[in-house]
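Limitations

Structures in this collection are predictions, not experimental determinations, and the ligand pose is part of the prediction. Treat each record accordingly. The example that follows, with pyridoxal-5'-phosphate as the small molecule, is included so readers can see exactly what is and is not provided: the inputs are given verbatim, and the output is the predicted complex.
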Amino acid sequence: MPLSSFARVQLAHLPTPLEPLTRLSQMLGGPRIYIKRDDCTGLAGGGNKTRKLEFLMGDALEKACDFILTAGGLQSNHARQTAAAAAKLGLDCELFLESVPGTPSSDYDRNGNLLLDRLLGAGVQRCPGDGSLLTRMEARAEELRREGRTPYVVPVGGSSGIGALGYADCALELIKQCQAQELEPDHIWMATGSGGTQAGLLAGLALAQSKVPLTGINVSATEEVQKAKLRPVLAETFGLLGLALPDLDDVICDENFYLPGYGIPNEGTLEAIRLLAVSEAILLDPVYSGKAMAGLIARIREGAFSSRDTVVFLHSGGAAALFAYETLL
Ligand SMILES: Cc1ncc(COP(=O)(O)O)c(C=O)c1O
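Predicted complex:
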């Protein structure tokens, strides 16, 4: 089915800007770096999930759902944007949020995204990090059904085929902007977690028959585990759009920058956050975009690009979480 035939609600400020990072490019002596500002999607702090939620909420409204549930880590940007989408559409919302081992304790469990979740009117169910999150959320959905409500369970990270359509659309938007700015990107660079953003971008690039390589920097997993997560989302997304599925061997999920683990920034992440702040006044985040940028900086320093190359970095948002990491920054 064509992208335009899927239900969609307008939540994001689109198109997001595509801008040069001139000072950063000069400082690194590397390729021309452009940034796609999906941190500026506009919905209560913005970020990549807003694009996915345009399609997910479209689906929820089409199914006459009146209660939105989702799950994630305590500082989930996805949960915050879902709470915001529900508030904007006048729907009830409950978030199932679990502790993340190894994250800083003082602000992590009350500030940042968690503060915003509450402000946005979402109910917050705090769960232990024991793998029971999805079972608890499903049990709550069942309870709501018995009470006569119509719940809509948004998958973790918004990463279903429907959610990923938001990033197929983003790829088309980006290609149009590149044409308008007479840019021919040699590479697109991004953070990959639950996989929907990467799956959607790959689908959009395939729709446009673009061969630009896309590097996903894993934020939480080895290449093998990441590809196992990506496989079903990719299949669903390409299936919805009637596209031929790419070979997973051709998909890049770089495992070299995520350690020590999900939600825990390493030295490279912290350096990237500081460098982007002082050179470009861009606020990266400690969990996703900071790790992705650390990967790009490392590859530039290794000489992976020439100064004539053009790299587009997708800023997927997440700066609200900075306030939960004060002790590390
Ligand atoms: C700021 C930010 N960047 C990137 C991602 C990763 O996107 P995906 O889960 O679609 O791989 C997330 C997911 O929560 C995020 O919050």
